[in-house]
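ok trying again, last paste got cut off:
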Amino acid sequence: MTQETTALAHSTVVRVSTERQSQSGNRVRSAARAAADSVPVVRTGPTGITAATPLVMFTSGGQTAFYGDPSPATVRDLVDELEAGTVPTAAADAVTEHDPETASLPVPERGPLSVGRRDVLGPCGWVAPMEPADWAFVSTEQPADAAAGAGLLGRGRGDAAADEPIAEAWETASTTDGDPVVVCNANDASGLSTGDDTLLSGAPMAVLDGIAVVAKHVDADDAVIYVNESQTAVQAYLREAIDAAADMLPVVPQLVAGPDEYRAGEPTAALEALEGADRIEPRLQPPSPAKRGLYGRPTVIHTPRTFAQVQRAVADPGSLDADAADPGTRIVTVTGDVAAPATVELGSSASLAAACEAVEMDGSFKMACVGGVLGGITRSLGVAPTAQSLRAAGLGTDGVVELFDGDRCAVETVGKRARFASEENSGRCVPGREGTKQLTELLRDVYDGSFETEKIRELARVMRRSSNCQVGAHAPRPVTTAIDEFEPEFRAHTNGRCPSGTCTEKL
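nice, full thing came through this time. structure:
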């Protein structure tokens, strides 16, 4: 049979949800295509649930059967059953009844896919990611008023309006002299948060459409997608997506690769990289990028997560609650000591604990680091995923929850993060350059019998208030929150004892 590229055009279809470069996914898809005579087999993008990848979905009319990571032989038998006129439900991991014309993955009642919501993540795993026919573009006709008026906040560390109303940056960029430009910052070298990657792989048309919506709103003729230079597969994938959508978009972005460095993901450091600077470091602010950004032009910088939220808000204006302090949803990656990471979507009334239902821990839960490599340490995940709740709890907002089991040492865990900050800061400001070194040394002193908690906290206060870069400002957060939660462990180390039994030498 001929290769099918669209999923939504068929009432009976086999979907194979996988990463494009996945060998097992390609084998499963090849097996399904080889077995199919009349039923189309379509590759869709990832759902965000790694444990269920590849995921094969057998749909006919308004019923879908889900099979996580089936063998090629099993897939061939299931395809035969579907072609015989029956949805193969007997051994399915889940079965759903749904609207036959749904453009969003129908959520099972149980299992990892049932965790949270699937609003922005809805198309991921269900639509053909490279097929414009599977997507309803809004940028050509619909204004961005719904997203701007609802007070949508920027998402992610790489967003120049992170946890701030994005409409303010749009207004500044559109009213400042010069030709505005829009940048999609998708360069995250930490490897922890996979929310942006899931969207770029599973719903690239949503991100491209969102970029075009913002570009039209600020009257920009130019847009750039900034990615990690080491992710060559992602680059090839996005070029294909851009080419496929070019005729549907009023503004077609250019793809540019930047350094595989943590610091290069900070918004103004991203601008330096895009301009080809030899030294990648964040810029002094003010002025903000919205006033003086890429090559001196007014610049709007958001992450793929933010652009996808914008697109969703424009496509469905009722999806955002303008009265909420943090409208929309938050995409969260749960990783750490788990069998397989998962990316889920949570509403503002949910808690981070709900996201953990999508994974299986290797051991018993001890603590979590919330908000990325320089997030906050906590024993409790009964916190709403909103920016306000996370900040009030001393946690980060970068959409990452790392779960750690009982074998983890709190002192060692935060010590490694302090050392990471001392190595990854740009060196531009004294608090970032010298403060991170002092913080690392103070933690090393704990192993030598000296725990100067007040000195650590005072250093943390100075770094938070005076650092020019995110690394310097956030580096103390894992340390101070760990002391709040596990001070007895720090004191035990001064006596030469690691309660977890894992520390054998100084950091």
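cool. The first helix runs from residue 23 to 35. The chain has four domains: 12-114, 145-319, 330-405, 410-494.
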